[in-house]
Amino acid sequence: NSYESNAQIESTRNIYLHNSSNELKLKQSDLQNSYYTLLDKFNRSKDEYSKLIQITNFEYLNLDQVLLEQKTVNNEIQILINLLGEKSNLKLKYEEDFLSELKIQSNTNSKSIQNSKKISKLTIQIKDREEMLLKFEKMFKQAVLQFEQYREISSILKNDIEENTTCLNDQEVILSTLHSELKKLDLDIHNESKSILKKEKIIMITTEKEEENFIKIDEVQYKIEEAQKETELINKSWVQNQNQNVQLMNKRDEQYNELKNVHSIALVLDRKNRILNREIISLSQQVVQHERTLDTTKKNLLRLEENFCKKEGKSSELLNENEYLRHSYIVELKENEKQSLEHANQLKLLKNELNEIKNLCAEKERESLSWETKVQTLVEYKNKIKLKDSDLSYIETKKKEIHRMQIREKQLKKESKKIMKNLELSLLRHTSIYNKAVSKFDSLKGNKINIQSFLKKLENLRSAIEKKKKECEGLTTCANNLQHNKLELECKVASLNVKTTNVEKDISDLTATIKDLERL
């Protein structure tokens, strides 16, 4: 009896649920129809809105053209007004001349014939001027009429634009209301579809229960035992997943520490870049000092030439000694030139090495960018596991620092190019001064030279050569330091490569574990 009563109750429930599901389906169909009608209205209003925008843009263009035409008409009117003023002034002048000539005619009877001719000419000219004035007046009236027409057109266009803007604002409000209604309908449809699915599931479950009621109680107990076993297995798998999550958290902490190390390396590179900037500034100052010393040597050479021309009267032995000393110093100058060229070549090689290092840094930055994308994917997975959002802000700060480093590298490239240009100019000046000195020595072979002035000159040249040697030694030390820095950077790049490979392996392992977890 109890079983039959339960079966009757469940059958009544099934009938009720079936009827309610049919009602909900009808409601859903009605809502879908209303949704489609509202979508059609929304699309139509969108099309009308786009058409109105096109019309307003066209009217704005017409308004601009009308304003330009108004400006041109105003300019023409001003030109015509100026011409009318000039013509009126000329008319007054002609009238004054005519009156003066009439006075002269009354006083002198002998020149009456000539005056009559002049009067006739003046009358003809006055008539012509009057006709021109009438034409200008007509032109002025026409321009005024055109100006009034343009004013009326511009006022009409302004009114049309205002009306169109009001219509557009109204339609924007209507569109916003329609959009909100569409969203509400979407939510209602979604909720009702969920409720329908739930009720359909309930109906299916009730039908299954009706079929299962005919099965024996022993089978139900057996299923309950199997369900308990499955729950135990699920609990075990849940414990395993928790352990895996703990491992993933530990790996995430390790990667965070590696990112801190990368940040420290970036700070060290910033410091080295600052040191290089200071060295570049010092080298540029040295180049300026070299230019000043070269200018002073030029002035000294000119003074010595003047002294050579003024002073005469020494023996040929001194000339031979001076020539011997000159040849020896020329040889020293050539050796110094060779050394300077070698140093310039070394600087070029160092520049090429720096460019290679910069290219390597750019490649590593690209790899770091790819690594950052991978880290972002990891962060997404971690967000799924409900981790904190602090890692994202840290990665964004790292990106900003990398961008700042790239800008700094570009500035260093520009400064290095400027320094190389200054070095090339200094070498060219050095060669030109050397050629001038050789030509002057050749021209002064026949003249007699003062020993003391020549010795002073030689001492000055020796001091300049020693300064150049010291500067070259400083450049070699700078080059050695740059090479040392290059080696350090290469070592750091290699270590970073190893770390990136390790991180990529860890990422692949993490992705595999996450996929396994999703499958479970």
TrEMBL record:
It comes from the Eukaryota. Residues 273-307, 333-367, 451-520 form a coiled coil. GO terms for biological process: axoneme assembly. The keyword Nucleus does not apply. Keywords: Coiled coil. The keyword rRNA processing does not apply. Transmembrane segments: none annotated. GO terms for cellular component: cytoplasm. PANTHER family: COILED-COIL DOMAIN-CONTAINING PROTEIN 40 (PTHR16275:SF8). This is Coiled-coil domain-containing protein. It comes from Sipha flava. The lineage of its organism: Eukaryota, Metazoa, Ecdysozoa, Arthropoda, Hexapoda.
